[in-house]
Specification:
The protein is an alpha+beta fold. The chain has 4 domains: 104 residues, no CATH class; 74 residues, no CATH class; 96 residues; 100 residues, no CATH class. Helices cover 19% and strands 19% of the residues. The chain has 8 helices and 20 strands. The strands form 7 sheets. Strands 14-15-10-17 form a 4-stranded antiparallel beta sheet, with helices on one face. It starts with 55 loop residues before the first strand and ends with a helix.
Length: 421
């Protein structure tokens, strides 16, 4: 399974950039997932007036998968709101604060600590107890006296417990005045009632449903014997209000680590969403449901694996490169057969060929940036004296001569090349 990333609702996820063989922008091959047609993530019933996101491509490039996914009722993400800020990126010396304060401007969403007790301590801890880096407890590290940092310190979701002490029927549960179950929960025993309460809460986690609909989404629950543990989508210290049954509810809390973990759910019953500073795709002061779903679907189709993210980000970055640069393509790990394009001025057909080869690259097993293979390409990309003819590869895979002596070719892998020079 490809390694996946998580979406950030404050980030705009643009569709990839592509060009036709004249060098003009091509916005139809990899379109934004607006949900208005089959090409943009909708099913057969999708229109501009009634978009849906029931058939979004698992891989928008069609290389790693040809399948589609229904994102309606399945569009969500998590955001960590830090409650500690530190005085450096090492995240060692920190204070409890909801905002940057003085020298403490580095948010600590996750720190790694030396002991389990410190990782859940009420104080932020200074010095060497916690830090940004995770260091494993290995025999080699132990032999060399390296201190392990293996216990994560981060804000937890807010949870509350509800203890059921008798069978019966619960007709309503509210938190902060909002209904979190869509129908009566019933049970012939305290254990079965607890299980049904959890099931009813989970029915509204990702969308509004039921004969007596919930008025909020995002709450979830699990039951163990007579105890139901409810998780809130955002910070709250309220106590659930239960109608019916014989229960004992407790207040929501999230332990000792300051901050909170927020569940962001995109659902049609919520028409307005927070607009981050980078969300230039949202026309108003907030984002609409359609804008939020389009952004999420773009992430899913074009960013949600490492390969998709790399292709999309690179396609956008290279769109700023013009014909003052000569660009070629050489695949190190030929998962899709030999891929080679001689360096040439980056315009017209050359730009089209480069984007076509690059966006159709196939991930294949090993590390895509093998140092040895990058080193083999170095003579074509570093400053040269003379004509710069490539005699290393067969005639069909030779790079063109460098046009000017001492002309510098910029490698995207400069760090790797310097390691070999």
């Amino acid at each position: 399974m490809p390694t996946t990333a998580s979406p950030n609702p404050a980030t705009r996820y643009r569709a990839p950039v592509m060009y036709d063989n004249t060098g003009a922008l091509d916005t139809t091959t990899y379109p934004s997932q607006t949900g208005q047609s089959a090409a943009t993530g909708g099913d057969g019933s999708a229109t501009a007036l009634l978009p849906n996101w029931k058939a979004v491509k698992v891989d928008g490039y069609g290389i790693q998968s040809a399948a589609t996914a229904n994102l309606e009722g399945n569009a969500f993400s998590y955001t960590t709101v830090p409650g500690e800020y530190c005085n450096s990126g090492q995240l060692r010396t920190c204070i409890a604060s909801a905002t940057p304060s003085g020298a403490y401007t580095f948010p600590a969403k996750l720190r790694w600590c030396t002991t389990s007790a410190i990782s859940v301590d009420t104080t932020a801890n200074a010095g060497t107890s916690c830090q940004a880096s995770n260091i494993e407890d290995t025999p080699v590290n132990a032999t060399n006296g390296v201190t392990p940092y293996t216990f994560p310190r981060m804000p937890r979701p807010h949870t509350a417990t509800l203890t059921v002490s008798a069978p019966g029927t619960v007709s309503n549960i509210t938190v902060d005045g909002l209904r979190i179950i869509p129908a009566d929960a019933t049970g012939l025993s305290d254990v079965s009632l607890a299980a049904d309460i959890a099931a009813k809460i989970n029915a509204c986690t990702y969308g509004i449903t039921g004969a007596t609909p919930c008025t909020v989404v995002g709450y979830s629950a699990v039951s163990l014997n007579q105890v139901v543990t409810i998780t809130a989508p955002a910070a709250t210290s309220s106590t659930p209000v239960v109608t019916g049954g014989t229960t004992t509810p407790g207040a929501f809390s999230n332990g000792n680590v300051p901050g909170s973990s927020v569940l962001n759910v995109i659902t049609p019953t919520v028409t307005s969403y927070f607009k981050g500073a980078d969300r230039t795709d949202c026309a108003g002061a907030t984002c609409t449901y359609a804008e939020e779903m389009t952004n999420y679907a773009n992430w899913y189709a074009y960013y949600h694996t490492r390969m998709q993210m790399m292709k999309t980000a690179s396609s956008i970055a290279f769109s700023a490169v013009d014909d003052k640069f000569r660009v070629g393509y050489y695949s190190i790990n030929n998962g899709g057969g030999t891929q080679f394009l001689n360096p040439s001025a980056f315009n017209g057909a050359q730009k089209y060929e480069w984007y076509t080869k690059f966006l159709n690259a196939v991930p294949f097993g090993a590390n895509a940036l093998a140092h040895r293979a990058v080193h083999h390409r170095a003579p074509v990309r570093r400053p040269v004296l003379g004509h710069g003819l490539d005699l290393e590869h067969p005639a069909g895979q030779r790079a063109n001569a460098v046009l000017l002596s001492a002309e510098f070719h910029h490698p995207v892998d400069r760090w790797l090349l310097e390691r070999h020079e």
